[in-house]
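agent> call fold_tool(seq_1)
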Amino acid sequence: MWARDPELAKHIYERGANPRYLPGFTLPPGLGATADLEKACHDADLLVVGVPTHGFRAILADARPYLRPWVPVVSLAKGLERGSLLRMTQIIRDELAGHPAAALTGPNLAKEIMAGQAAASVIATEDLDVAKALQSVMQRGLFRIYVNHDVIGCELGGALKNVVAIATGIAQGLGVGDNTRAAVVCRGLAEVTRLGVAMGGEAPTFAGLAGMGDLIATCMSPLSRNRTLGEQLGAGRALAEILGATRTVAEGVGTAYTVHELAERHGVEMPVCQEVYRVLTGEIPASEAYRGLTPYRQAGHEREPG
């Protein structure tokens, strides 16, 4: 394992624990750690990249001189690159040409996996032979991995659901009720699916682990960074204050901006994600984000969004 901070790498190596990001858990005894990127990459048969999207391209470029040819590269990041609007596997192809690119995604809350609870994930890459090889290497015990060729759908499902999770967190912070949150999750899934299909993803993917499964976990769990951020916004805290008080990254903040651009580019209506974008940009306070979810004045004449 590579860590940017030498002190954290030393702590993981010497004490078998990561108190900064996984407090209370003991790491596997065979897991080493280093702050030396060359040492971490040079002999690797598989490179798994678990850094936030804003640093994803730079770390690939830094690792490029040390990586042997044809080593598969798996992204754990659930987001899109600001500016280019690229998915992470596209960035892998940009920076590490010739290396098979894949994404591992799904409802995977790290602390539950560390606690040994059952979880299911998806390895997505166009080459199913590569996917099956990665599946056999990464699947362990109650951590089950399925394969999917729809890389676009899987990556977009993992990225876009973070924006919906912020919306459900705001609902929690405002105390609007579980019925309202359920409505937002369902309408959010419809939005994510519409945009995902418009960008080349397959509709069934968004009803599976990489879509609905990840959406449910991220929207409902108090362990979710994006849902927690939304909850604090709903409780009246300022975005800058929330971001300044945590070491972890809520990818949904950056993704809200890229989703706004992508929705306009593809002509897709995304009202839930648009409201989150307006809250994050300061156009409206979080308390106004749910002003439209009141009883319909013309009951029986509304169609369910789809």
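agent> call fold_tool(seq_2)
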Amino acid sequence: MAKPPPLCLTMGEPAGIGGEIAIKAWAARNDEPVAPFFLIDDPDRIRALAARIGVDVTVSAITAPGEADFAAALPVLPLEKPVKATPGTLDTANAPAVIESITRAHALIVAGEAAAMVTNPIQKSTLYAAGFPYPGHTEFLAALAGSATPPVMMLAVEGLRVVPVTVHQSLRTALDALTADEIVTRARIAARDLRDRFGIAQPRLAVAGVNPHAGEDGTLGREEIEIVIPAIERLRAEGWHVEGPKSPDTMFHPAARATYDVAICHYHDQALIPLKTLDYDHGVNVTLGLNFIRTSPDHGTALDIAGTGTAKADSLIAALALAAKLARV
């Protein structure tokens, strides 16, 4: 039986902690299971970074993913674009290499040479300054995939999965943007991926309320009556198992979490506060609705600690593990 292809890990922002956590994830493989991966980056940069943070790592420059021997060395597929990075110091000159790392990872997945993509965090401001036309990582990946449906962000830790309907916008504008159509679209994509990729035959969705006590029949706000309940009714009519609207202050304790497979939340902090409170270090970002598997650590570039050797690889290791599970590596 042929060995499955490895996971592909992108470089991310080279001034951030992506390279450091990749090194630490590889170094941790003898102490805990780490899914085999190769990194798209500059091998010399990774060697120098390992020396800087004091991690003994053997780096192997490869020409194709099939050459990767994860047990013997950290496999690095060299970039064609140059990378000259100083930890903690952003440089727009590195934007082409950051983009190349992502596009090559996608091409390798399409070619069947990589099982899934795990992305290190990018610094969107640097890419914007270089003319990057997409709002973020996820939208760029959707464009590469030619996806006809909007990508959906799901965050996961052991015991909790959350999908925010609106993401990176102010609370005021998020509530203005919230519609039944948006809830239905994202909940439907989440349910399909939970069924088709996560192997949950009948996914159970819990839809949060917007207001305290889920509006108390309109006395504390009408968003539940006018937006949330109509969305739930549409999803149920499609055959999905959906409960709600749930009072946001009581739907995340252990007994409540045992009753559903994913929580559909309406704004960023409603989803991420309970998730990060439950398990701050092991959160994984999963992009749903793509025709390939993509996970990412649930944190940013951490420029303030880049190059100091203090970054934790826990979230990356969790992202690699989930990607391997979904890809059945």
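agent> summarizing second result for user.
The chain is about 35% helix and 15% strand. Residues 159-276 form a domain with the Isopropylmalate Dehydrogenase fold (CATH 3.40.718.10).
agent> awaiting next instruction.
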